[in-house]
Amino acid sequence: MNRAGFYISFRLFSLLLVAFSTGTNLFAQKVHTIDILNADLTASDIKISRDARKLIGNVSLRHEDAIMFCDSAYFYPATYTVDAFSNVKIIQGDTLTLTGDKLHYNGITKMAEVRNNVVLVNKETTLVTNYLDYNRETGIGYYLGGGKITDKDNILTSKQGYFYTNVDEFIFKKDVVIEHPDYNILSDTLKYNTTTEIAYFYGPTEIIGEDSYIYCEKGWYDTRVDKSLVTRNAYLIDKSTWLKGDSLYYEGGIGFGRATGNVQLIDSAQNLILSGHYGIYYKETQYAMITDSALMIQVEDADSMYVHADTLKSIQNPDIQEQSRILKAYNRVKFFRSDIQGVCDSLVYIEADSTFHFFGSPVLWSDENQLTAGKIEILMKNKELNEMYMRDNSFIASQEDSTKFNQIMGKMMTGFFKENKLSKVLVSGNGQTIYYGVDNDEIIGVNKTECSDLIIYLKENKISRVNYIANPKGTYYPIHLFSPDEAFLSDFTWNVSWRPLKPSDVFSWK
């Protein structure tokens, strides 16, 4: 939001307030004689009142330094009251003009009541209404039935408007609209203090900018420093990004936003949802951070991915001109997608090449296979699993029965997926395998082999064939001759209890 524009839109309110609250107002605080300056015809009218004086034609009256004009009037000297009709006009000094069709002024109560086609002009500010009352004694004024305040840059309309000169406040109610070249504000109730220059919103409120939108049902905006706090169903839309929370704090000067309580950051362009209980956002860099029950959902039509971590971050990729994010999750990361699940210390997803990077001894599950390594990368293609790269102490295990596990171990592995299922694995360096032979659903033997490089083919998540590249060393054992001491490779672990089976499981750490 443009801070200067918002400030100007409320300067018009303060100018009107000054017009009513200065010491030389329309009517002085003390009761003074109201002088008749001119009337084409004067007469008494006992039908109206015993002391009523009827003034007709080119009527002008003076009360201190304010002069009133009208076509006709009733003047009541005993009660210090005037009823003026038709083409009513009051001039105060060089800057203030008030016109209307009808005026009633009571010099004792200090109440001025102006009706129909009311126009108050003070310097460059204009108030138009059909119903305006102002009490000089209490410093309270109001208009009912609709009013419009304008200056060179702004238009404010509302059904009701109240001003309290003693505390420097304006309150606008019902269908409040501020129109400014940079933004529009629509509110049920708006209060503004000319001393603090803070605007308060009550009820459904919309702040509509050129490329941003804010909704709230309660909040405030400090026009001096361009800061705001909005609550109650509050949300901010900035182009394709939607930020919502129980409370939203925003500093327009630096484009900084902070959200607390039921926070959601939605990027509709990237089909991304970040949620938690605390979040921050920088507009210029598109940086976002979510923590406290943080959850990321990468929304897909067929299969969404859910990621939980202590902290989630989303930043604009600095190496790419067009919009592309880098997503980071760290500390106790756990994720779920129907075709792959896992836990790790930290995760990075780069939208530009659709690659997931898993760090800190990640454990992943793809169908029946458990995958572990020092680091794992998974490349997506057309929103499906495509390739996988495992580095440092790579290990793939699957359970054959309650005590027996197929195992592949190597320094590095490259996996290939077909229809989101692991179909082939290349093992490079220090390759070792244990896999069981099955005939008619009965385990009949086991192959235990060492080979530096090998290729493993899988079918329906089972090892169907192994190609040993060079100098394999292995033995096939009938199952009854295979020692349990030989049944596990050195880095074997089985962590199925950590595996999330549904999206909500990501919040249960291991």
Describe the structure.
The protein has one helix spanning 3-21, and strands spanning 35-38, 41-44, 53-63, 66-76, 81-92, 96-106, 111-122, 125-135, 140-143, 147-150, 155-158, 160-164, 169-180, 183-193, 198-209, 212-222, 227-238, 241-251, 256-267, 272-282, 287-298, 305-316, 325-337, 340-350, 355-359, 363-366, 369-372, 375-381, 384-399, 405-418, 421-439, 442-459, 462-468, 473-478. The chain is mainly beta. Among the domains are: 252-352, Lipopolysaccharide (LPS) transport protein A like domain (lipopolysaccharide transport protein A fold), CATH 2.60.450.10; 377-497, no CATH class. The chain has a 34-stranded antiparallel β-sheet that branches. The protein starts with a helix and ends in a 32-residue tail after the last strand.
Short recap of the structure:
With 510 residues, the chain is mostly beta strands. It has one helix and 34 strands. Among the domains are: 101 residues, lipopolysaccharide transport protein A fold (Sandwich); 121 residues, no CATH class.
